[in-house]
Amino acid sequence: MDLAAELAQYGPTADHAPPTLAEAQHYCRRLAETHYENFTVVSRLFPQHLHQHLCNVYAYCRWADDLADEAGGQSLSLLDWWAQQLDAMFSGRTSHPVFVALAETVREYVIPQKPLADLLVAFRRDQLQTRYESMSDLLTYCECSANPVGRIVLTLGRCVDETSGHLSDRICTALQLANFCQDVRRDFERGRIYIPQTLCRAYGWDDSKFAAGRCDSAFREMLAVMVNAAEAYLDEGQPLVRHVPHELRLPIRVFIAGGRAILAAIRRARYDVWSQRPTVGRLTKLRVLVTAWWQG
């Protein structure tokens, strides 16, 4: 997304007429399907009647993510503006295409404001906090950055309750931790370290070692702790498959298997996430998809 161009057209100082619902939905589909190629593949795992709604939620997250990471010194003020737009939507007043489309999703599936607002809490936190003292501190970040997405998906599937919500949180936290392990180098280049400081100190790693970016035995052991924690959360969340309607079981199995594939790739690289970012290849993605389908 070209943030500058989008802000010029739809930002806080832009003067534009509210789009029709059809125009707003088209905007969200275009944003979702052209910005992130994997979104199209993942969204097709869900039933067709949820595709537009997933695009609407994705467009909301995409805007927030870009306001946080691409707006420089304006990030916090623009995130405040985005939060005001969210409040306005829940008050029945909106003109931004993302919120015109999202309002229809919220209305039809009775999505509460909290998970959408919690995502903005995480984006703001990234602007203010770059280190996490303990794993429990890091998990409070995951509660706002990852877990709300799972809760929204369950709401779209009309199956959110205490049990499914708890299991979904485990899966989403696991995927977030896996992403932290995968992106240690990329995050540090942005000034952020998501490996808890208590763990860093236990293995003798400080900012100077992150800056050097060399994968030594201590780093391997340290990252293995994070990888094992992510895997444990995936194990805890696995029973979610039995607690959701049939139409959600395939995507959830794929998410879990995809998380395991990322962790396996990190282990195959012997935890060296500095030389090359561990990724899941096309063949592995296909294998994950076929296995998840066959299990169903």
Summarize the structure in words.
The chain has helices spanning 3-10, 21-35, 37-43, 51-69, 75-90, 97-109, 113-128, 135-145, 147-156, 162-182, 184-189, 197-202, 207-212, 217-237, 246-268, 282-295. By secondary structure, the chain is mostly helical. It contains 16 helices and no strands. The longest helix has 23 residues, at 246-268. Helix 5 packs antiparallel against helix 7 (113-128) and helix 14 (217-237) runs antiparallel to helix 15 (246-268). Helix content is 72%, strand content 0%.
Which CATH first-tier class of the largest domain would you pick? Mainly Alpha
Provide the CATH architecture of the largest domain. Orthogonal Bundle
The end-to-end span amounts to: 36 Å
CATH superfamily of the largest domain: Farnesyl Diphosphate Synthase
Q: Which structural class best describes the helix and strand composition?
A: mainly alpha
Continuous helix count: 16
Helix content: over 70%
The CATH topology name of the largest domain reads Farnesyl Diphosphate Synthase
Proportion of residues in extended strands: under 5%
Runs with pLDDT <50, length 5+?
A: none
Gyration radius over CA: 19 Å
Q: Major sheet, described briefly?
A: none
Round the mean pLDDT to the nearest integer and report it.
92
Number of domains: 2
